[in-house]
Amino acid sequence: MSTLSKEKISQSIIVILLLLLCVSVIYPFMYMLAISLNVGSDAAKGGVYLWPRAFTLDNYKVVIGNSVIRHAYLITIARTLVGTFIGMLVTLLAAYGLSYNLMPFRGALLTYVLITMLFSGGLIPLFIQLYHLNLLNSFWVYIVPSAFSAWNMFVMLKFIQGIPWALIESAEMDGATPFRILFSVILPLSKPMLAALSLFTAVGHWNDWFSGAFYVTDQNLIPVQTFLQQLLSASDLSAVLGSNSNIEQLARGSMLSNVTLMSVKMATVMVSALPILCVYPFLQKYFVKGVLIGSVKG
Q: Residue 94 in contact with residue 148, Cβ under 8 Å?
């Protein structure tokens, strides 16, 4: 068999494997979308896999019309925006400071940060620490503990160290202060890496249900992913709607007979997943470039 034929067979196998991977990733979303757009009582009969058999928007009306879900959605958006901004600011400042080889105790600080990345005190010590910091049942419990990521800092540090030192020296010779160098030289050149790390951080904040489940007991502070976790373990529709008045209002509108717990669950999953998925196309070029640069410079 010729080398060209072997390459064609190898490429065909790779394409088939990638197609199977795409199908395995896309099909669950198509299934959830079909169930969420189908009449709940009809979907309960089975046979709905890729497209709705009895189209309806009642499931989304229940989700969007629920004040608890709307508030949880706002909490998630707020923590994602604030948490990503603060996280990237802390990461950039820490990496920029540690990029100077003449910084006092630089080696000891890097070792200390590396230890925190490899070892953790555990859940109970973290809970006790958050308790003494008065962060429990607070919006800032979502922001402060995740404001610094050792992994993000090391990736950003390697990227900054890959920037030609002559640029920084020339700026220093022109009288630029360290903060002027940071915002006029380092920051513009670091946009691809910051975009990639921001995407990782934002996805982490958006998908985090653990913090809301264990560190928050106030229902007014839970994010949408924690609400979704509670919803998936619910046993009846009243736990989703939240009050008898909501149920009576839906019954008067002949909507209650069209929705089921499963159909509302699928609608909630889609509402919570679609926004973060829509961000990827806009950051894709920065994401790919940042990851490639990080792999080369690392």
A: yes
pLDDT tens per residue, range 17-36: 999 999 998 888 899 899 98
d(C-alpha 158, C-alpha 156), whole Å: 5
Q: Where are the domains of the chain?
A: 58-297
- The Cα-based distances of 82 to 41, 165, 289, 291 in angstroms read 40, 32, 25, 23
CATH 3.40.50.2000 fits domain 58-297 = no
Q: How far apart are CA 278 and CA 282, in angstroms?
A: 8
Give the end-to-end CA distance of the chain in Å, rounded to a whole number.
40
- Specify the pTM: 0.79
Alpha helices for the chain (secondary structure H): 3-36, 40-43, 58-65, 67-98, 106-118, 123-132, 150-161, 165-173, 178-181, 187-189, 191-207, 210-214, 224-232, 238-241, 244-252, 261-297
Q: What is the pLDDT of residues 58-85, one digit of tens each?
A: 888 888 877 788 888 899 999 999 999 9
CB 49 within 8 A of CB 272: no
Distance of CA 61 to the CA centre of its chain: 25
Which is nearest to 272 in space by CA: 232, 234, 238, 245? 232
